[in-house]
Amino acid sequence: MSNSHERVETATHDNMLECRGLTRVYQEGPQDLTVLDNLELTVAAGERIAVVGSSGSGKTTLLNLLGGLDRPTQGEILIGGRSIKGLSEAAIGKFRNQHIGFVYQFHHLLAEFTALENVSMPLIIRGQSRSEAAKKANILLERVGMAPRGEHKPGELSGGERQRVAIARALVTDPSLVLMDEPTGNLDQTTARQILDLMDEVAERSRSAFVVVTHDMAIARHQDRVLRLDKGRLAPDTTG
Ligand SMILES: Nc1ncnc2c1ncn2[C@@H]1O[C@H](COP(=O)(O)OP(=O)(O)OP(=O)(O)O)[C@@H](O)[C@H]1O
């Protein structure tokens, strides 16, 4: 299932993700709000980190920057050693499809397509045939316990089921970097456990780096490191 020819060049780079001096200031009328302040972060290939922090500490802001959905005020993000700073919107979109898997808090599944089509989509965009894509998508749906619901559209699925489809979609391309915002928020313990096992397997097989934002300390502790976002910077979590 390797797609090494499409993978970000990592031959000389064991750091899949690097943030250098990452700063995001929101301009709010007369007062600026500095949410990320010279943040530094390094995540190795195959490493999974959890990001915890109080509400409003900037976790979603950080994920949006890492996924190229927003641009930093200052600083730089390197994925597989490559800076995404100078990329145009179109180039970032392409880069995201090729190298990043994103699980948003609100799924963002395409309402008019079935679960199977939603999970197949990133592969079809990459140029795989429909049948090839559907085959791989089915394997992922199976892994998240959603294969029997593959022909259903998101509107016919529960919140937790949609979440599982979104996770399958994020992982189907074996991305270099996986960004997850509360991935197991809607899931019962058994299903959450299945998802954690799948994350372990993908990290190991594909050497993907994971950044998982969560309020759930059990999920956080399952990752290789737990970092706390506070006052715009990340530091090892000591609240445990
Ligand atoms: N587009 C924006 N314009 C101005 N301020 C913003 C914008 N987006 C977020 N903020 C502010 O930036 C701060 C960080 O928000 P963010 O959503 O990143 O926090 P969070 O840690 O994800 O919070 P939660 O855990 O509640 O989801 C908050 O004070 C928020 O009000």
TrEMBL record:
<dbReference type="InterPro" id="IPR015854">
    <property type="entry name" value="ABC_transpr_LolD-like"/>
</dbReference>
<dbReference type="InterPro" id="IPR003439">
    <property type="entry name" value="ABC_transporter-like_ATP-bd"/>
</dbReference>
<keyword id="KW-0067">ATP-binding</keyword>
<protein>
    <recommendedName>
        <fullName>Lipoprotein-releasing system ATP-binding protein LolD</fullName>
        <ecNumber>7.6.2.-</ecNumber>
    </recommendedName>
</protein>
<keyword id="KW-0547">Nucleotide-binding</keyword>
<dbReference type="InterPro" id="IPR027417">
    <property type="entry name" value="P-loop_NTPase"/>
</dbReference>
<dbReference type="InterPro" id="IPR017911">
    <property type="entry name" value="MacB-like_ATP-bd"/>
</dbReference>
<comment type="function">
    <text>Part of the ABC transporter complex LolCDE involved in the translocation of mature outer membrane-directed lipoproteins, from the inner membrane to the periplasmic chaperone, LolA. Responsible for the formation of the LolA-lipoprotein complex in an ATP-dependent manner.</text>
</comment>
<keyword id="KW-0449">Lipoprotein</keyword>
<dbReference type="Pfam" id="PF00005">
    <property type="entry name" value="ABC_tran"/>
</dbReference>
<dbReference type="InterPro" id="IPR003593">
    <property type="entry name" value="AAA+_ATPase"/>
</dbReference>
<keyword id="KW-1003">Cell membrane</keyword>
<keyword id="KW-0997">Cell inner membrane</keyword>
<comment type="subunit">
    <text>The complex is composed of two ATP-binding proteins (LolD) and two transmembrane proteins (LolC and LolE).</text>
</comment>
<comment type="similarity">
    <text>Belongs to the ABC transporter superfamily. Lipoprotein translocase (TC 3.A.1.125) family.</text>
</comment>
<keyword id="KW-0472">Membrane</keyword>
<keyword id="KW-0813">Transport</keyword>
<dbReference type="InterPro" id="IPR017871">
    <property type="entry name" value="ABC_transporter-like_CS"/>
</dbReference>
<keyword id="KW-1278">Translocase</keyword>
<dbReference type="GO" id="GO:0005524">
    <property type="term" value="F:ATP binding"/>
</dbReference>
<feature type="domain" description="ABC transporter">
    <location>
        <begin position="17"/>
        <end position="240"/>
    </location>
</feature>
<dbReference type="InterPro" id="IPR011924">
    <property type="entry name" value="LolD_lipo_ATP-bd"/>
</dbReference>
